[in-house]
Structure formats: C-alpha cells, structure tokens
Amino acid sequence: MSGVVRAAWRLGVAAARGPAGRPLSQAPAGRAAGGGAEGSGGSGSREAVERLVRAHPVVVFMKGSPAQPLCGFSNAVVQILRLHGVEDYRAHDVLQDPDLRQGIKNYSNWPTIPQVYLNGEFVGGCDILLQMHQNGDLVEELKKLGIRSALLDAEKDKDKK
Amino acid sequence: MPAPLLAAAGRGLWAMGDGGPLARAIRAKLAAALQPTHLQVLDESSRHGGPPGAETHFTVVVVSGRFAGLPPLQRHRLVHAALRAELAGPLHALAIVARTPQQWENDPLVPPRPPCLGGSKQERRRDAAGGDGDSPRNQ
C-alpha cells in the first residue's frame, strides 16, 4: 500500500511541477477586510462555512486548487482522492480568502489546512485521510456516500489475474 | 565513562538532537500532556522553503497509551490541545503520527512526508503585501 502512496506523491509532484511557478492570481487589493472571520455574513462565518461543507458529499479546504495545489499536504489530499477516482468534489482555496481560512479553523476547531469534509462532517487533515486510505476506511466512507472507489475496481482486476 | 565526559557528550547530543526553542517547547508539552513512551519532534521547515531550523513546520511522532480506544481525529485533537499556544503562534504546520504502544510495536515506521509545493513561499509574499489575518507571529 505504501508503495502506491509513494507513487502518488511522485504523481502529485510531477503534476504540480507542470503548472507550478505560475504566479497565484491574487485577490483584488481593494477587497474589504470585513469585521473579522466571524463577521455576520462574511465568508468565514459559521453560516457561510456550514453552507460550504454541506454543498457536496466531498468538500476540501486546501491551499491552491486540485489542478495546482500550493502545499504538499493539500496535494496529498488531492492525490489520495484521485487514487480513489474521486474527481467531482468541492475544493476551496483558503489562500484566496483570509476570512474563510480563519473561519474554517474556527468551525472545525482544527488549526491547520487541509481539511476534509465527508457528508458535511469534518473527517480530518492529510494525515488522517492517508490513514483512512491505507486501512480501507476511505473506501467504506465513500461507499456510504454512494461513491464507488476506483480502487475496488483495481482490486477486482488483480483478483482476476 | 568518567562523569564530566559523559556530561559533555550529553550536552553535545542535546544540542544536536533537541533542536531549537520551539522544538523543545513542543517536546515538553507533549511529554507532559500525553506521557509518551516514544516521542519524536522533527523540524521539517527546511523541507518547506524555510532555512534549516526555521521552526515553522513540524512532524511529531507520539506513541502513548492515552490514545487507546480513540479514533485518529480525537488523537490529533489531544495533540492540538497540548500545543494550542504554539499553533496560535509560530507553528505553521503540524504533521502528526499518533499511535498506541501496541500499534507502534506492530508498525514503527513513519509514512513518508509529502513534498513541499511552495505554499509557504506564496504566503510570505502575501504577508509582505499586507497579511492574511492569520496567527500573530509574536515570537
């Protein structure tokens, strides 16, 4: 299993090196800071975050985007999801939105990014997702969401040989 | 081995092994909170675009009976709770391996760390440009 994951790191690095180095498009300079992350209606408010985590079965708060992750830990989450054939999910780049960046940490009471939500529930960061991937829990959790992991098909092919 | 020589050797190892002030604080707090049977505190900042010894990105390997019966999320929350002050301050990223002594005995390997993709370099540029309201770097 760990060999597969190491391959995934390499895939991720190769994928990221392609577009990497292009400047990240910055949020407009004149953007209002708002009344802090928890300002009512702000993008970091509990209500706003709640809407985001419930918008889709799989929601990820990360640095950069799935096409261009800007952090090795965020990239690890993207690569693990990719291994399972999960390409349809909501990804939010916290580097683009300081209020969201703080708001998501308040919401989950979790101090770091990336953060993974399954069915609106906080599951953990990169380390936990990796563990779930390695011990089979991720396949099970995806199944509960009606998502069939691509690894199940890979397993079936293996058995056939 | 004569006592002074042992002490000097100890000091040398301490200087090499224990790292900077944040590493020592992390070690002390985790030791106090979780009474680990095995504890590694690794400054991985140099792997994330910082100079060696920058003390911004850490990996901690914590083996403790306190984790027994707890799912990974709760184990990580215990670690976060012990390091609340550091996480509100200069500790920018924290990778956690949290196992019970039994689990560690079965599998004493730490998974490979993902490679940095320059994120913190992007952030430093943004900080210079006016900040992102993130943790006050007051150390």
Describe the structure.
Chain A: Residues 18-45 are annotated as: Disordered. The complex is a heterodimer of chains A (161) and B (139). Chain A has 7 helices and 4 strands, in the order H-H-E-H-E-H-E-E-H-H-H. With 161 residues, chain A is α+β, with helices and mostly antiparallel strands. Chain A has a single domain (46-159), classed as Glutaredoxin (3-Layer(aba) Sandwich). In chain A, strand 1, helix 3 (72-83) and strand 2 (90-93) form a beta-alpha-beta unit. Chain B has 139 residues and is α+β, with helices and mostly antiparallel strands. Helices cover 45% and strands 14% of the residues of chain B. Chain B contains 6 helices and 3 strands, in the order ααββααβαα. The longest helix of chain B is centred in the N-terminal third of the chain and has 15 residues, at 3-17. Chain B is globular, with a radius of gyration of 17 Å. Residues 9-15 and 129-139 of chain B have low confidence and may be disordered.
